[in-house]
Amino acid sequence: MKILTEHIDVQGIETIDVFRKHGGYAAVEKAIKKMTPDEVTEEVKKSGLRGRGGAGFPMGMKWSFLAKPEGVPRYLVCNADESEPGTFKDHYLMMKSPHTLIEGMIVSSYALGANTSYIYIRGELMYVATILEKAIQEAKDKGLLGKNILGSGYDLELYVQLGGGAYICGEETALLESLEGKRGNPRNKPPFPAVKGLWQCPTVVNNVESIAATPWIINNGGDEYAKIGIGRSTGTKLISVSGHVRKPGVYELSLGLSVEDFIYGDEWCGGIRDGHKLKAVVAGGSSVPILPAELILKTTNGENRLMTYESLSDGGFATGTMLGSGGFVVMDETTCIVHNTLTFGRFYHHESCGQCSPCREGTGWMDKVLYRIEHGNGRQEDIDLLVDVAKKIEGNTICPLGDAAAWPVAAAIRHFRDEFEWHINHPEKATQKGAVFMREGASWSL
Amino acid sequence: MTNTQTIQFPASTLDKVHEIINRYPEGKQKSALLPILHLAQAEWKWCSPEVMDYVAGLLKLSPVEVYEVASFYTMFHLEPVGNHVIEYCRTGPCCLMGGVEVYDHLKAKLGINTGETTADGKFTVKEVECLAACGWGPVFQIREQFYMNLTTQKVDEILEELSK
Question: Pairing between strand A278-282 and A290-292?
Fold first, then answer.
């Protein structure tokens, strides 16, 4: 089932005329002319759509928390600060089909009673901002944005805001700080943005993919959307696939597809690149626990692992992981887990805003210790030291970046401890170019 | 280099500045800071103290409000850079696709390390974190343009093209 990407490869879909020929902006007409804002919200609630940025919080419920004091403006801010390593779905969607997001922004802003909305996009995607601004102008020219949309009396101005290069701004309160022209330091919560957000006004922050799904929900009804998927994992999800598969890229799947079909199916990743074997997967962006081949394909109960929020987290962190943002990084047997963990550790060290000591200091320590293990200077006690530092960061910070930094290190050691030990015990071998530890008897071992 | 010139946006850019400021409610012009720093960097290649002071003046901010922001975000260059700033992604997924080898080649070819500028002032190389293009890695970016699925051969071709 394709909802977001059904027409994404149609020639000219980035232009409003072609987009409308394929049903585009029907949801704006329907919502604004035939529905009240509360009715729109109700459909989104019924859909069971969960935030696609990574947290998976029900979107309709988030909307219903929005405070609506008289005479105070409310804002919708789209989080297009996609920066989680392994994730590039929003980049793909906005670049190919900008109107899909613009239509969603109009429908969602209407539901929330916002008359000014912002798309906060990471600065590196400047060229995508230009694509979006062009689409906004087209929508304005057709009376779909601006004053008195489609003669309804509803006004909406939509702006694109460039970030400056900071992963932390994907955290919603850091994003709002950044949108206010400040450093991206996350705020203490409460108050939540729904009460005090942008310029202390009630604000909803939603991910690109979540907002882009709302037009389909309005056109077809929340109940129809909820029929796609399994249980509380309703609808479709964009999965960004990178690493050692035949066909990396962005795929839209109905939640509930088995991980095995997704990796090996010709319609999807097409299997591991020729002559290689699956070693490990990071299923939901760099912050979620890495799993070795056998655990990503099957749960410890022997059930097929599915692409759903629930199935991927089956087993907790001991044997499971998370769907997260859907950044699906596939690694074959040539992958050195220590090196990969170092790049993630370095990433979080670089991206920590520095506000909370456990994260600021802890990410630095993890980076430093991972670096010395990778470069042949590891000490016996380093593995336990990493586990200890990770534990001390987790849960002790204002925002989830601390957890996001701790989890990948802890999980890599949990599932690939022997690989870390090999680096420490055999530094000459381990530091040779292309050297990778082969676990005896593992399905990926050569 | 910038301090010998008068720091002043051309008229067309000033119009853009005012258009941006009008995107926010009255008195919230500080929100325009990041977009305007991008305009400033496009104009003067890097954010010198003089450029940041000028931006502060435009937005009625104290200079330190601009410095603290410019120094927080990695895209703003606080030191002079070359004509082409090559920012390559060093994060996991790009490394899986052979990024390290490609970037080593890039640096060797230019004879510089990360953070340095070639003697002729043409190229600066910087390493950055994930650019949200993981399925098309290895990746680097020069201003708004992405260069994807890089190989050592592609790097040679790109450098040759840019050296013309």
Answer: antiparallel
β-pair type (A236-243, A327-332): parallel
Q: Which of A122, A184, A248 sits opposite B72 (nearest CB)?
A: A184
- Which of A119, A124, A162, A329 is most worth mutating to test chain B (most B CB atoms within 10 A of its CB)? A124
With beta carbons less than 8 A apart as the criterion, state whether A419 and A338 touch.
yes
Task: Report the candidate in A172, A160, A129, A151 with the shortest Cα–Cα distance to residue A32.
Answer: A151
Which residues of chain B are within 8 Å of residue A249 when distances are taken between CB atoms?
135
Q: How does DSSP assign A47-63, residue by residue?
A: HT-B-TTTT--BHHHHH
Sign of CA dihedral A362, A364, A365, A370: positive
**Contacts A163 to B, Cβ<8 Å:** 34, 73
pLDDT under 70 in chain A at which residues?
A: none
Answer yes or no: do B92 and A86 touch at CB < 8 A: yes
Q: Are residues B101 and B42 in the same domain?
A: no
Asked if the structure places residue B31 within a domain, the reply is yes
Same domain, B62 and B90: no
| A114 and chain B in contact, CB less than 8 A | no
Asked if B142 has any chain A CB less than 8 Å from its own CB, the reply is no
- Delineate the domains of chain A, giving CATH numbers in brackets: 16-227 (3.40.50.11540), 235-332 (3.10.20.600), 337-430 (1.20.1440.230)
B78 in any annotated domain: no
CB neighbour burial string for A298-326, b if at least 16 within 10 angstroms, e if fewer: bbeeeeebbbbbebbbbbeeebbbbbbbb
- When CB atoms are compared, the residue of B74, B135, B146 closest to A241 is B135
Q: What is the per-residue pLDDT for A182?
A: 98
Residues 6+ apart with CB under 8 A from A365: A385, A389
Task: Residue B10: give the domain boundaries.
Answer: 2-70
Give how many domains chain B has, as a whole number. Answer: 2
Contact between chains at B75 and A123 (C-beta distance less than 8 A): yes
pLDDT tens-place string over residues A66-98: 999 999 999 999 999 999 999 999 999 999 999
Which parts of A25-184 are beta strand (E)?
Answer: 75-80, 116-121, 157-162
- Interface A-B, measured as beta-carbon pairs within 8 A, has a size of 145
Letter for the amino acid at A322? Answer: M
Dihedrals phi, psi of A20, to nearest 5 degrees: -70, -35
Which of B28, B130, B145 comes nearest A83 by C-beta?
Answer: B130
Query: Is B149 part of any domain?
Result: yes
Assess whether pLDDT exceeds 50 at residue B1.
no
The pLDDT of B55-80, averaged and rounded, is: 98
Contact B96 A329 (CB under 8 A): yes
Assign B5 a pLDDT band (cuts: 50, 70, 90). low
pLDDT tens sequence across B25-49: 999 999 999 999 999 999 999 999 9
